[in-house]
Amino acid sequence: MAPRIALVQANATVGALEANADLVLAWAHRAYREGADLVVFPEMFLTGYPVEDLALRESFIEASRARLAALPGRLAEAGLGSLTVVVGFLDRDHDAPHRTGSPRHSPQNAAAVIRDGAVLARYAKHHLPNYGVFDEFRYFVPGRAACQFEVAGSQVAVTICEDLWQDGGPVHWAREAGADVVLVLNGSPYERNKDDRRLELCRSRAAEANAVLAYVNLVGGQDELVFDGDSLVVDPAGRVLARAPQFDECLLVVDLDEPAGTRADRLGDEEEVYAALVLATRDYVRKNGFRSVVLGLSGGVDSALTAAIAVDALGAEHVHGVSMPSAFSSGHSRSDALDLAERTGLHLRTVPIAAVVDAFQAQLHLTGLAEENLQARVRGSTLMGISNEEGHLVLATGNKSELAVGYSTLYGDAVGAFAPIKDVPKTTVWSLSRWRNTKAVADGRTPPIPVSSIDKPPSAELRPGQLDSDSLPPYDLLDDVLDDYVEQDIGTAALVAMGFAPELVSTVAALTDRAEYKRRQYPPGPKISFKAFGRDRRLPITSAWHEDVLGEAPE
């Protein structure tokens, strides 16, 4: 008889060890009521993930181990002792010798197997990723042993996340040991189209192990990362036996004797990205102890999309918009902001800034770009003042294209605690806005974003008649170059060889390189792309390397 497996796709909070342990009890109760023999939680669920430098604190390691040690008794006292529970936590290897370059206290990304009031077995992650957003060589020491146990007559092997992505190791050992089921505990962050690669990898590893593969992933936001869930179970032939929804908590139950589990529909591209932004925004605000947000509403598409995301994440009653017209603000900027507020139901106030700008000017006598940026900085100070007075978290509204080329003002439109569309190129801002309106119509609701905000030419409105196109190439062309230069790390000579005009490449590369210091000071925002600014892309601020169109650095 094969086991009934329950995968817990749930939202843990980093550092909330007691609350996360309570979640283990609550979800284990649900799994027990569903008749599960085995319930599996994601990677580092007890501590939340990623814990970053908390993993290097002995006090935090021992707190995790203490919570883990208490779990078997708590499960038994709750009448769940017969249930086999596998949960990720932060452990340590007391036998590991300390070596220069290895993390102190030998922390391990681990999993525990619990049953009958005891920890039956422990497993530590073997393969430690050290690319992209991952720094696990900095935080953990690798495991060295396999872990396999029996449930309902089946042999079950344990692996953790990167163990699945690397050849050999635990998956190979599972096949050699005759495992019937391979569990994969994951904290796998979202990025566009990753779910397709994830499924194909699970299929290939299930075939390699000649076993059913059960993949359970976190869901929720953690700083710049957002976890999409998408837990699934596949058999050795590659058939999907069950698959959880994206971006929602879920108990995915599959009976391996009668594998006809849940198969949630996949989200379309825009819907998937939008769901990631909403979840990331909701969790950042709530997990950091805020109930409401405030943002500037310019009447443009960036602030409109950010506002729509905030309303969907928190509810309109918790979103406060501020229109801050200056001497150069157009009438449609004010009317579009009002239209957005009426469509979404968010709070809107108007704070004219012309008099404040004039007061600064009377003392500073700024001209040109300095004068333009003064307006943005007055707006930033206005938002921060409201935040301090009323307790709202400030959202920044800049998009990835603007950040790439430095079109943001430090201490102006760059102020804020979180930037929901930081990793969203301008062309995607437009497509997401149109999608959100289309979905609203399909649902019989009012489209949240004014059509004029989507259709009008982008402008910062910091001088008379200003348009983004005055100093930037068309956004579709700009985003095409940025995708290659930023995300793919393609050099300028190669970009010219690909057919981009040398002048365009030179301009975009220079703007991008010069703006690194601005990006370092920009608020965090959810990663949705292969390479987001921040954890993914780490370039020196002080650098004499600047490619020309021939791919050479100047002497």
What is the structure about, briefly put?
This protein is an alpha/beta fold and 555 residues long. Helix content is 39%, strand content 17%.
Description:
With 555 residues, the protein is an alpha/beta fold. The chain has 2 domains: 4-266, 4-Layer Sandwich (Nitrilase/N-carbamoyl-D-aminoacid amidohydrolase); 273-466, HUPs (Rossmann fold), CATH 3.40.50.620. It has 18 helices and 18 strands. The chain is elongated. 49% of the residues are buried.
Number of domains: 2
Shape: elongated
Could you tell me how far the N terminus lies from the C terminus, measured between alpha carbons in angstroms? 72 Å
Question: Which structural class should the secondary elements be placed in?
Answer: alpha/beta
Radius of gyration: 26 Å
Please identify which CATH superfamily of the largest domain we are dealing with: Carbon-nitrogen hydrolase
The CATH architecture name of the largest domain reads: 4-Layer Sandwich
| Helix-residue proportion | 25-40%
Q: Main beta sheet, described?
A: 6 strands, mixed
Given the structure, what is the number of helices? 18
Q: Name the average pLDDT.
A: 92
Strand arrangement across the biggest beta sheet: 5-4-3-2-1-14
Low-confidence regions: none
Q: Please tally the β strands and state the result.
A: 18
Approximate strand percentage: 15-25%
Q: What is the CATH class of the largest domain?
A: Alpha Beta
